Amino acid sequence: MQHELVPSGADRRIVPDAEESDLDRQVLDELIARRSASKVLHGAVTRREQLARLNVVDKRGGVRLAGLLATGHYPQQFFPRLLVDVTTHPGREKSATGTALRFLDRAECVGMLADVVEDAVNAVVRNLRTYSTVDGATRHDVPEIPVAVIREAIANAVLHREYSPIFLGQPVSVDVFSDRVEVTNPGGLWGGKTTDNLDDGTSRCRNQVLLPLMQHVSPRGQSGFTVEGQGGGVRSMFTEMEAHALDRPLFTASADQVKVTLRRHGAEIPEHRAWLRALADRELSPTKTPHY
Prior knowledge:
By secondary structure, the chain is of the alpha+beta class. It has helices at 25-35, 47-53, 65-71, 113-125, 147-160, 210-214, 233-243, 270-280, and strands spanning 84-88, 105-109, 130-135, 138-143, 172-176, 180-186, 250-253, 257-263.
């Protein structure tokens, strides 16, 4: 296991048997185009030189793990468990083996990481309560947990998880319970980060090759990027949850994993009802129930 103050370097490793043909050419073209105006590609003339400069491949054309995860057609061909496993449970705890109903929904989100994050966010949102408001002729469906918070939690998990060989068989796990959502990633906190200073606004990432790639690769069919890498993500999660009358995210960490818990609340909580009234710009009836 890597020392908590030493960069992992695992994302720089060359993936045996992986070739440039395993990478999505359109994604690579868009990545190169986005980076062409910066100094990072200065003097890199050939495509091989450009991809090597971006750390997608090495100078001999070997595909780096970060390059495969960020731009690969199907990275799970080489690492079947590098995915996000979203499971929705019927109650507040995982059901015991042999129970008739062990889970309500399950999605194993695969592909390049930007798509994995987006698919995982959608899998969570479809299993949350949704509150509907009407603005004129337009109806707005608002999930009980802000989508931006869910996305940040899952993106952080795939970006900051440990990718050294001992952890390659472990996915990022997202568990949706009746009262909370838990996002768990392999590998403990890194770079002097603790659960007490995660929201201090400083950016530290154990996967220093993967981060700049994820900052410039969009989910397919979208224009935004999965991560910003500016260190303000956790603080924005706190702000968003508080703005929606929800508890702050709870971070817990051990030597080999980090978990963030996002609490769900019902409309019966006074502060939450006040938020809903402001959202709808009208009084909710005492018997009004969320739209599912």
